[in-house]
Specification:
Elements (H helix, E strand, L loop, with lengths): L2 E7 L7 H14 L4 E7 L11 H4 L3 E2 L5 E2 L2 H8 L9 E3 H14 L9 H17 L6 E6 L9 H14 L4 E8 L2 E2 L3 E2 L2 H13 L5 E6 L5 H11 L6 E5 L8 H7 L2 H8 L10 H13 L4 E8 L9 H14 L2 E8 L9 H4 L3 E4 L8 H13 L4 E4 L1 H13 L6 E3 L8 E6 L1 H4 L9 E9 L4 H6 L3 E8 L1 E3 L4 H6 L3 E6 L5 E5 L6 E4 L14 H16 L1
Bound molecules: glutamine.
């Protein structure tokens, strides 16, 4: 059985609990321990798949096709956690399962209650991960803020772990806010209140991570320690970092967080060769890079940074490997619909990411046309590939009115359309083409050269497909189909000929990119943008 670390949050949301949990995993892995991470989301949706990205951020897809919270993406970027459907727990899933069991008669004669039935289901789900072989630590991040009505059963289940397993097997880490008020003064009162709230439920935090603008000084750490019964050395300053979130592991390590955790859990580091030094070198190389490129993201969810989280991160990973800093310019595709494309003039490469529905589509098509005709590097992901096909059909192959049936069901040329099997699907949750699929790449294409092999596996999340009926006319007009499913039935990637670099993929490569192992397509896209920037 592994040890358990619960990470809760207080005061307010969006303090970066996911990144804190991921960083803890990163540091423990750096000491040679094996970790796995679980995200608990107290909402009633069964998964994140049906939520609007502007409200909830991107949907992170696992190999086994689960549509999960974006924090799983943080775990994937900071740790080697093996992530699947089991790593994401929601209220919806827990109740669905308990009610299913009740209908089956599994609790016959008994009253089914939040405690113990719901809490037991939660505990079993967490332990399903924690009991995996050779796992040292399971990190469980509890979404939301302590005190929220929805999170009560999860916090209660977390509390029961210390009852069930005792010390030194369970650790509670609480992330709170130490805000700055006028004259730059840091205030500890919200943290004191938040810890009191945890204590009321029966959890004494072992470690506090205090989000603050500037580092906490010793006297503030002393004060927080005095009011919360958390040892002074375990009050950690989670202050803003200067350049990138990838600096956070260094900031925590300098304060000895990894050592404190291991001491409290009675774990010994398995290696003395700290991986964090390699990580630090890699991040310093990026921060100190002397050139900067600008990448324009043309999408419809640009008002929330988290909507395209994995795409933004994968671009930075491409920057780390190419030793060039990446500035992301978010361009609202609807704004391009006026025909004014000035916003695109300054940027070194254009990326159209995934999306759903009709709003903003024509603006994306306009950005694709701009990239193709003005020879700017272009990278289309999922919807971004579909836009590439539509633009080519309309403007090169002469298929007037070409469209996706998602946006225009009566298009005279539905170059992107539903497969027959999707036409009969009536329910929305978990019914898209989801998860890892193998694809076959065509020798001699850009994408084949990027991967350096014929067979690849990438994750999918879409309903619409390149319509096979239009393969012939589009190939005849010069569009390259560079990848298909293994049976050749579905188009997986396309590219432009006689253009410096235009690649579209139906899958989502961004989910598999890491700072220390950038995804090869992102690596090459950034390299091409760098060349383009030099030319200017
Ligand atoms: N809306 C498109 C589809 O369902 C693209 C989806 C996406 O970009 N993830 O096929």
């Amino acid at each position: 059985m592994s040890k358990y670390i619960f990470v809760s949050g207080g005061v307010c949301s969006s303090l970066g609990k996911g990144i804190a949990a991921a960083t803890i995993g990163n540091l423990l892995e750096g000491s040679g321990l094996t970790v796995n991470s679980v995200k608990i989301d107290p909402y009633i949706n069964v998964d994140a798949g049906t939520m609007n990205p502007i409200q909830h951020g991107e949907v992170y897809v696992t190999d086994d096709g689960a549509e999960t919270d974006l924090d799983l993406g943080n775990y994937a970027r900071f740790t080697n956690s093996d992530l699947s459907r089991d790593n994401s727990i929601t209220t919806g899933q827990v109740y669905q399962e308990v009610i299913r069991k009740e209908r089956e008669g599994r609790f016959l004669g008994r009253t089914v209650q939040v405690i113990p039935h719901i809490t037991d289901e939660i505990k079993q789900r967490i332990q399903r991960i924690g009991e995996r072989e050779d796992l040292d630590v399971t990190i469980v991040e509890i979404g939301g803020t302590v005190g929220d009505i929805e999170s009560v059963p999860f916090i209660e289940a977390a509390r029961q772990f210390i009852h069930d397993f005792g010390k030194p097997h369970v650790l509670y880490i609480h992330l709170t806010l130490v805000p700055t008020v006028s004259m730059g003064e840091l205030k500890t009162k919200p943290t004191q209140h938040s810890v009191k709230e945890l204590l009321e439920i029966g959890i004494q935090p072992d470690i506090l991570l205090c989000r603050c603008e500037v580092p906490l000084n010793e006297s503030l750490k002393h004060k927080i320690s005095l009011f919360t019964n958390v040892e002074e050395e375990a009050v950690i300053s989670a202050n803003n970092v200067a350049n990138t979130i990838y600096e956070i592991p260094m900031s925590f390590e300098k304060q000895g967080l990894d050592t404190i955790i291991m001491k409290k859990l009675d774990l010994k580091p398995k290696t003395h060769n700290k991986a964090i030094r390699e990580w630090e070198k890699m991040i310093n190389g990026y921060i100190k890079a002397d050139s900067l490129i600008k990448i324009g993201i043309v999408g419809k969810y640009v008002e929330l940074h988290d909507s395209y989280k994995s795409v933004f991160e994968a671009l930075v990973h491409g920057g780390i490997a190419n030793k060039v800093r990446v500035e992301i310019i978010k361009i609202d595709s609807e704004k391009l619909e006026t025909g004014n494309t000035e916003a695109l003039d300054e940027i070194d490469g254009i990326l159209v990411p995934g999306g759903f529905g009709q709003r903003g589509i024509e603006g994306m098509i306009c950005a694709v046309q701009y990239a193709r005709t003005r020879e700017k590097p272009y990278f289309g992901i999922c919807l971004g590939m579909q836009m590439m096909v539509i633009e080519y059909a309309r403007n090169v192959a002469g298929l007037n009115g070409a469209h996706s049936t998602e946006c225009e069901p009566n298009s005279p040329h539905p170059v992107i359309s539903l497969l027959e099997e999707q036409e009969n699907v009536k329910t929305m949750g978990g019914t898209m083409r989801l998860g890892a699929n193998d694809s076959k790449l065509t020798k001699g294409t850009k994408i084949f050269e990027i991967y350096g092999k014929e067979k690849i596996s990438e994750r999918h999340r879409h309903r619409y497909e390149f319509a096979n009926h239009y393969r012939e006319p589009l190939i005849a007009a010069g569009l390259t189909i560079s990848g298909t499913t293994m049976d050749g039935e579905l188009v997986e990637s396309v590219e432009w000929q006689n253009h410096p670099w235009g690649v579209g993929v139906q899958f989502h490569p961004e989910f598999k990119s890491r700072p220390d192992a950038p995804h090869p397509i992102f690596y090459r896209f950034i390299e091409e943008c760098k060349k383009n920037a030099k030319k200017k």
